[in-house]
Amino acid sequence: xxxxxxxxxxxxxxxxxxxxxxxxxxxxxxxxxxxxxxxxxxxxxxxxxxxxxxxxxxxxxxxxxxxxxxxxxxxxxxxxxxxxxxxxxxxxxxxxxxxxxxxxxxxxxxxxxxxxxxxxxxxxxxxxxxxxxxxxxxxxxxxxxxxxxxxxxxxxxxxxxxxxxxxxxxxxxxxxxxxxxxxxxxxxxxxxxxxxxxxxxxxxxxxxxxxxxxxxxxxxxxxxxxxxxxxxx
Length: 233
Fold this sequence. Notes:
By secondary structure, the protein is α/β, with parallel strands linked by helices. The chain is built from 7 helices and 10 strands. It has a 5-stranded parallel sheet with strand order 3-2-4-1-5, sandwiched between helices. Strand 6, helix 6 and strand 7 form a beta-alpha-beta unit. The chain is elongated.
């Protein structure tokens, strides 16, 4: 019998926001894989470190964090092959994923490569969106309002068009794009009430009105533009 591939969301950063199921699966895993930069600590592993059993095999999936392009598909191909070897040997494999595995999570690339051959189970996690809204203490939307989740990497014309459509917005992948994103939000007349959240749920968390956001924003930051329901807030 082949092992089961588990995509386990470990939440936005605070280990206390891991679910009980995530903790149980990680603690019982003989093989634990996780995304890792080529320099520095794996964020996903740092969240789950207290749950990883002594003696468990750890497989870092090293994804270079640099501006120039790199063969990302080759990285996931190699990682999938390594995990498939353990799965065929009958070992369950737990893959850690920051936030939620299927919400902009890197696990989906492994799922696409392995789910046809192996049983896969997904353990959802507290997403960065939920954690950021909680940190900002601002309801995102209500009633018939529409919430749109936008990557900060969108071209300027597409970003402007989506903001003009109205509703509530959560903009991810902010980082060095903060200035451009803030300008687009203000140009759309949505600056009032917009919030910036960096490193949600961690000790270094920063929450501020978008107009007062720090110029140097980390990759793990988000801009929230709440809806306009008059009965909320």
